[in-house]
Amino acid sequence: MLDFRHETFLTLCSCNSFTKTAELLHISQPAVSQHIKYLEALYGYKLFDTTYKKIQLTEQGELLRAFAMTIFSDLKHFKESLSATTADTLHFSFGATLSIGEYLMPKILSRLLNKDPEMSVHMSVANTQLLLERLNQGDLDFIVVEGLFDKSAYDTKVFSLERFIPVCSPRLEWANREVGFHEIVECRLILRESGSGTREIFENVLQKNNYSIHAFEKVIEIGNMAAIKKMVANGLGITFLFEVAAKRELEDGSLSRINIRGFSELREFNFVFLKNSFFYERYMKIYELLKQAFNEDNKSEF
């Protein structure tokens, strides 16, 4: 069993400061140093490289961080599962990014709850980075995200492949006609805040086409997808988003696609949980349930 010194280690990994770690754990800074020295002696390797006064994990430190993070998270979830051993119903707590949480999950969860009304579900909606932090801290069982992240650090399953598209008001000249990237940079761009999955993917798309956000004459950042779509529908600018997030507006004609020459983007929505978790089989069972409900919902639309 991992002891309190491993908690000190994980806290230092998170904040990269001996002083901040001491403050967060309400211990002295020398105590933090002693805990790290004990672990380095225990495992026989340096866990941190403090060259040039910067705190950086060594290769062995990275391995211990991943192992300890999973153990502490599993222990937290194990304690919670003990209280539910007498219940026959499934319960889980997960996180989803905005496009997924607002436009994909409601139908999926509705199908599951109709089949099993006693199912207990808690969903948090936030950007990719915040959800990864909460997953690492053991606050969530798993997350479903659209953003970019280091897949090698987690166990992942592709949940779906979704089209990433540019849209504008049907009144604008770019609606439903072929244009080049050099033309749309003259538009006002309305997009999500830094840290959101949609923003990261859009920046990645721009880079692939040898552009950046700075190429646009005017840029507005909005943290709410509904507000972005309304502003775009009113002709105030263009945006890039997942087709699933604009499905209703595309169908009712309040938004139109922009056909950018040579542009075609399919992106993954990923089901993510901590690597080598004790609850691997449980998470895979939940993944299959969510995936089945997703497939059933897609079939019902045809």
UniProtKB/TrEMBL annotation:
Q: Name one Pfam family in it.
A: LysR_substrate
Q: Does the keyword S-adenosyl-L-methionine apply?
A: no
Tell me if Transit peptide is a UniProt keyword of this record. Answer: no
Name the keywords, alphabetized. DNA-binding, Transcription, Transcription regulation
Describe the location of the HTH lysR-type domain by residue ranges. 2-58
Q: Name one GO molecular function term.
A: DNA-binding transcription factor activity
The family classification in the record reads: Belongs to the LysR transcriptional regulatory family.
Q: Which PANTHER family match?
A: HTH-TYPE TRANSCRIPTIONAL REGULATOR (PTHR30126), HTH-TYPE TRANSCRIPTIONAL REGULATOR CYSL (PTHR30126:SF39)
- The molecule here is called LysR family transcriptional regulator
Species whose genome carries this gene: Trichococcus flocculiformis
List the taxonomic lineage.
Answer: Bacteria, Bacillati, Bacillota, Bacilli, Lactobacillales
